[in-house]
Write a structure and sequence with these properties.
The complex is a heterodimer of chains A (155) and B (659).
Chain A lengths: L1 H11 L19 H13 L16 H15 L4 H12 L14 H48 L2
Helix pairs in contact in A: 2-3
Chain B lengths: L1 H29 L2 H5 L1 H24 L6 H6 L6 H6 L5 H21 L6 H25 L23 H30 L4 H32 L10 H26 L3 H24 L5 H6 L1 H25 L14 H31 L9 H24 L7 H21 L10 H22 L7 H7 L2 H26 L1 E7 L4 E4 L2 E12 L4 E11 L2 E6 L2 E5 L4 E5 L1 E3 L4 E10 L6 E9 L3 H17 L2 H8 L15
Antiparallel strand pairs in B: 1-10, 2-3, 3-4, 4-5, 4-6, 6-7, 8-9, 9-10
Classes of the chains: A mainly alpha (155), B alpha+beta (659).
Chain lengths: 155, 659
């Protein structure tokens, strides 16, 4: 399904020639944890000049720069939060694929829970009402059976 | 001349669509058979003329008629024939034409396979499909004419987008569209039922067959898209929560809910109003998906304004279809009465829960997809909503769904007892928990608790489904009972197994996939997850409309050669851009996947990315099982036989345990 959006990328975005050439760089880290953190961060940050690609997958110059920046910050011992904050200060929230929690995104984050609660509330009401009709029909059925049995007994 | 015939055919089709959508509707309302009977020939005529238009555009592609603007933009003298044929749906205008053709195809199928449906209902259904068709024809003719000419014609075309030059993408859009558009039949049945006030078991049964069939195609279409992205984008991933992917996933989720709710409506006469609403939602999301992808609004809110004619038409059309059907619903739904009662522990409640979870998931994805657009257009700032958000909300909503599937499938309609369910289900539960948690010990490089739990969940979906089938049989006559089991049950079992396979695939891929970026000189080796990858260098090669660098990487396992991979980097000169073709050795338990990047020096060194993708095939195997299950369910003979009988809604007290 990426096809159509990618068609749009080809027309509109500056990372055209680099498209879908996975960004291949050979970096060395002090320890494997650093490498894991690096990969996680560049996967969660957006390439700002591309249609919808993270830093890890983009080969645009800006993405390369930001990857290098992330790399040097990790080597310099900065925490993940510090790196993200730096990027947000520079480029705004648009750079993060994980939107922050603030007044303008509060609906985005709490709506799933609200909708679920609403759905369960409806389920509760519907089922409670339906149980009522169930016992009513059960009673009616029992009454009918009793009547039929009585009829049978008195020929 | 041929392109003009195509454009003219569209105009004729529009006239027929107008007739198809008006007279039969009036005829059905007033009870005039002659007016109602016009629907079928009009629909067939419309199909014929749209087919002619479609053939004309294909002809223009095949014969390199670059005076047609659309062909000049999407084809080239060197383009292989198969991609000239699939090039018809490569961009906006042509894919709308394909949409329309498929709509007419579904309509034609309805005229052919609806002998058992009352004439009034058929007339209404065809008229509503005709109305949708009118909208699309107008959209094509007024804003997106695929037959537009340019003079003088260029000597050569701009070439097809290289990303689309892949067999996977040649068939992915048609499959997806067959699914999307198929839901229009479910929608038309729902609206027809609202108009006629007929919402009984027979209606649910007709509707169910069409819905399941559309769902099968959509399932295959989405899986194909994901498979293509994996093959073609060289990133080793299979889903990015891109708005375009979401656009196809939302109708699938709501369509899945619809299939389940239709089951309850057919068997027990409950949730009628809800089922109708779901049918409306499913089709609305299909329409929204088509337009989201095609209008350019996703690229940016401002792109929408560049071509205001299209944008306004789309908004108006969506408004009329969704708003109109919801108004009709609000007017007629209060009169709908659901009959059967049910208790807390019953299949009805399980299906309701299933519906709630699926719909909330779809609504969340819709919210995440549109939220940035809304914020941006209200000038409240630009944000990105990407995979971290979607995964955070998607996983907690779908885990209960998978748990529920096993319980719902074995529980009785109306009322069940907890101890009976426990007696049936404790064994599959215990087995899947133990096997799932033990699985990562076998043949995996390290233990992952997430993979173990995910494996347990997937196995539970499979074993519980199989146990559901088993519990229908009684000892001594297992074979007879299995033979007597309707194929709908087999379909459901298979589809539920498919979800299990899918879940296992996701769990193990996430836990055990490893990738490594390297600089490799010919002869260099690297050990990844027990496989030794040897880089043998890169050579030049020429394709029909591109030049390629082809790498060779040989992979060894336990000192024996297991695969030789040829990742490519292609340069399409006409569009001056490059594409990667990953080198992949597919396997049931692992894919070896390599991509080459760029040459680094004179010694033949290249940057290379190596992947070991665990269990990734299961992610597409699962949907394949689901689709197969859907097909088996549709083939159920009960539908063909019973559909011809005019059935009434089941009595309130008549409990059936058949699915």
């Amino acid at each position: 399904m990426k096809c159509c959006c990618l068609a749009a990328i080809l027309l509109l975005s500056p990372c055209v020639p680099a498209l879908s050439l996975a960004s291949l760089e050979t970096l060395s880290f002090a320890n494997p944890q650093q490498e894991t953190r690096y990969k996680k961060i560049i996967a969660e940050l957006r390439c700002l000049v591309c249609q919808n690609q993270n830093l890890a997958d983009s080969n645009a110059d800006l993405a390369k720069d930001l990857r290098k920046k992330t790399y040097t910050m990790i080597l310099a011992g900065q925490t993940d939060a510090q790196i993200i904050d730096f990027m947000v200060a520079r480029y705004g929230d648009f750079v993060r694929y994980r939107p922050p929690f603030n007044p303008s995104t509060v609906l985005l984050w709490i709506s799933p829970a609200l909708l679920l609660a609403l759905g369960l509330g409806i389920l509760w009401r519907v089922t409670r009402r339906s149980r009522g009709t169930l016992s009513a029909t059960d009673e009616a059925g029992k009454a009918r059976i009793r009547k039929l049995l009585r009829k049978e007994r008195e020929p | 001349m041929i392109p003009e015939i195509g454009a003219f055919a569209l105009v004729v089709a529009l006239c027929l669509a107008v007739i198809q959508s008006t007279l039969p509707l009036a005829g059905a309302a007033r009870g005039i058979p002659a007016w109602m009977n016009i629907a079928k020939p009009a629909a067939c005529g419309q199909l014929l003329f749209v087919l002619i238009a479609y053939a004309c555009l294909t002809w223009a592609f095949v014969t390199h008629d670059f005076s047609v603007l659309y062909v000049a933009h999407n084809s080239n003298l060197n383009l292989p024939l198969i991609y000239r044929i699939s090039g018809v749906w490569a961009a906006h205008e042509g894919s709308l034409l394909l949409w329309l053709l498929i709509l007419c195809g579904w309509t034609g199928a309805v005229t052919r396979f609806s002998r058992s449906v009352p004439d009034q209902m058929v007339a209404r259904v065809l008229a509503i499909l005709g109305l949708i068709s009118v909208g699309f024809l107008l959209f094509l003719l007024l804003t997106s004419n695929p037959f537009e000419r340019q003079f003088p014609a260029p000597l050569n075309g701009r070439d097809l987008n290289p990303l689309l030059q892949d067999p996977g993408l040649a068939i992915h859009p048609p499959m997806l569209y067959i699914g999307y558009v198929g839901f229009s039949v479910a929608f038309a049945f729902a609206i027809a039922a609202l108009l006629g006030g007929r919402l009984d078991a027979a209606w649910a049964r007709w509707s169910r067959t069409w819905t399941t069939l559309a769902w099968v195609f959509l399932t295959i279409g989405i899986a194909l898209g994901s498979w293509w992205a994996y093959n073609e984008l060289g990133w080793g991933g299979w889903w990015f929560w891109d708005p375009v992917e979401n656009a196809s996933f939302m109708p699938w989720l709501v369509g899945t809910a619809l299939i389940h709710s239709l089951a309850a409506t057919e068997k027990r006469g409950v949730f009628k109003a809800w089922t109708v609403l779901l049918a409306i939602f499913t089709f609305s999301l299909s329409l929204l998906g088509t337009f989201l992808v095609r209008s350019g609004i996703l690229t940016s809110v401002h792109a929408f304004a560049i071509d205001p004619a299209r944008g306004i038409f789309i908004l108006a059309f969506l408004g009329i279809v969704i708003g109109g059907s919801l108004l009709l619903y609000a007017w007629r739904a209060p009169a709908i009465r659901s009959v059967g009662g049910f208790d807390w522990l019953s299949r009805e409640v399980a299906l309701l829960l299933n519906n709630i979870l699926l719909v909330v998931t779809a609504a969340t994805i819709l919210l995440g997809t549109l939220y940035p657009l809304v914020l941006d257009s209200l000038q409240l700032g630009k944000i990105s909503v990407g995979p971290p958000y979607f995964n955070t909300v998607f996983v907690p909503l779908t885990i209960p769904l998978a748990l529920l599937a096993g319980i719902g499938a074995v529980s009785h309609w109306k009322r069940d007892r907890a101890w009976r369910l426990a007696k049936i289900l404790w064994m599959p539960f215990a087995i899947s928990l133990v096997l799932g948690l033990a699985w990562p010990f076998i043949g995996m490089p390290h233990y992952s608790i997430a993979a173990g739990l995910g494996g347990s969940l997937g196995l539970w979906a499979i074993f519980a489904a199989l146990q559901g089938l088993w519990s229908r049989t009684s000892s001594g006559q297992r074979w007879e009972s299995l033979r007597a089991t309707p194929s709908g049950i087999y379909g459901m079992t298979l589809a539920h197994c498919g979800t299990g396979i899918f879940i296992i695939g996701i769990a193990f891929t996430s836990a055990y996939t490893v990738e490594k970026d390297l600089r490799m000189t010919p002869g260099d080796e690297y050990l990844l997850s027990g496989y030794r990858y040897r880089f043998d260098g890169v050579e030049d090669r020429d394709g029909p409309n591109y030049r390629a660098d082809v790498g060779t990487i040989t992979v060894f396992h336990d000192e024996t050669e297991v695969a030789r991979l040829y990742p490519e980097k292609r340069f399409y000169s006409r569009q001056s851009n490059a594409m990667t073709e990953a080198g992949i050795d597919a396997g049931l338990f692992r894919d070896l996947y390599v991509v080459i990047g760029e040459p680094l020096d004179e010694n033949g060194s290249w940057s290379v990315r190596l992947y070991y993708n665990a269990f990734v095939r299961w992610i597409w195997l699962g949907p394949l099982f689901m689709a197969l299950g859907g097909l088996i369910a549709v083939s159920d003979r009960r539908y063909r036989h019973l559909a011809s009988r005019r059935t009434q809604s089941p009595l309130p007290g008549a409990a059936t345990s058949a699915g």
